[in-house]
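4.2 Preliminary Data

To establish feasibility before requesting continued support, the project team ran the inverse folding procedure on a target of 367 residues. The structure was first converted into the token representation described in Section 3, and no sequence information of any kind was made available to the design step. The complete token record follows.
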């Protein structure tokens, strides 16, 4: 059976995953491959080939054998697994190609994997409220870092009656999303849904956004039927209740699958240095011409970034957002990487010593 004709091919199975699965065929007799479509309290729903080899079926399996204390390695929707269907056990997980990770709200600043093996990260942003470009940049940073290609979807486009205004909103979003597709979509009227569907065809996509962004409505429009419940957003702030409470994988009629996620109140960065570089590509390019290689783009002489702000080439809001996310990412890294913590501590001590020496020289000169 070729991988293209494999029953799990519609879920993303290919030769690469088949190669990864070979170790389980040798060590775990009777194991079959499967894709995790839902995880819930120590058990999961897994799509596996049907016994007759024609089509698929969904089975429940216990996750005890793959449950670890590492939150980044805990199984999640989108993972590929080796499954013992007879005993109802997940025997092991296949290596991930991509993972969408955010920091948790806990004081331990742990990472949380929201979805695995994703090709596209669909970032839903509601036009029922004022467009928050800073939040778009935050989602984009995490999306690029995950290894997925982001697609920014401005939902509820039917609420913007003036096409000129809608065009400006799309253009503003495009300025903060270099390399990413930006679409205005209305699940109510169908505007842009076919374009989005064509962009996602054949791959695995994860749908992300705040509560009230219209993710469930958009998921229903893409699937072509009411598979997700829908609640109304509050009029005063556009926020909604958590219609989706777990991460679920849905088959798409045009090929591929969609992982719908609960609304995200907090979207903290997690080890997202390369994601920042891609989201703020124009600032990184300008920074290459700064006089100092470690320029902070604050008040340093010869700063090419500040010069671009002064000339109007780069907006001050864009630079402020870049600095904010950089600081956040460094803070998270400093709490989770002992080597970086030591480096920051040494740097602080060195600068403190230099400051004390400069103060002593100043006193000695009588200044």
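Position-by-position output of the design step:
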């Amino acid at each position: 059976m070729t991988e293209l004709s494999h029953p799990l091919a519609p879920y993303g199975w290919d030769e690469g995953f088949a190669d990864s699965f070979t170790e389980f065929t040798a060590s775990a007799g009777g194991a079959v491959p499967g894709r995790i479509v839902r995880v819930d309290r120590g058990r999961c729903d897994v799509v596996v080939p049907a016994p007759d080899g024609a089509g698929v079926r969904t089975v429940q399996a216990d996750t005890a054998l793959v449950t670890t204390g590492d939150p980044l390695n805990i199984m999640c929707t989108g993972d590929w697994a080796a499954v013992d269907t007879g005993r109802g056990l997940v025997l092991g997980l296949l290596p991930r190609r991509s993972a969408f990770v955010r920091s948790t709200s806990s004081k331990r600043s742990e990472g949380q994997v929201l979805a695995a093996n994703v090709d596209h990260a669909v970032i839903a942003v509601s036009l029922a409220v004022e467009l928050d470009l800073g939040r778009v940049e935050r989602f984009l940073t995490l999306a690029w870092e995950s290894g997925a290609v982001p697609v920014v979807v401005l939902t509820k486009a039917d609420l913007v009656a003036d096409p000129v205004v809608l065009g400006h909103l799309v253009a503003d979003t495009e300025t903060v999303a270099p390399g990413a597709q930006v679409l205005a979509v209305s699940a109510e009227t169908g505007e842009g849904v076919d374009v989005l569907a064509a962009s996602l065809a054949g791959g695995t996509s994860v749908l992300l956004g705040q509560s009230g962004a219209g993710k469930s409505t958009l998921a229903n429009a893409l699937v072509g039927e009411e598979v997700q419940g829908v609640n109304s957003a509050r009029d005063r702030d556009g926020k909604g209740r958590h219609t989706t409470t777990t991460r679920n994988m849905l088959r798409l009629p045009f090929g591929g699958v969609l992982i719908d996620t609960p609304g995200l109140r907090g979207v903290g960065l997690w080890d997202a240095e390369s994601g920042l570089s891609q989201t703020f590509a124009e600032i990184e390019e300008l920074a290459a011409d700064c006089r100092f290689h470690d320029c902070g783009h604050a008040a340093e002489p010869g700063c090419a970034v500040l010069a671009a702000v002064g000339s109007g080439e780069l907006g001050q809001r864009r630079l402020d957002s870049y600095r904010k996310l950089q600081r956040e990412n460094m803070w998270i890294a400093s709490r989770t990487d002992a080597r970086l913590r030591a480096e920051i501590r040494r740097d602080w001590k060195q600068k403190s010593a230099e400051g004390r020496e400069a103060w002593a020289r100043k006193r000695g000169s009588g200044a």
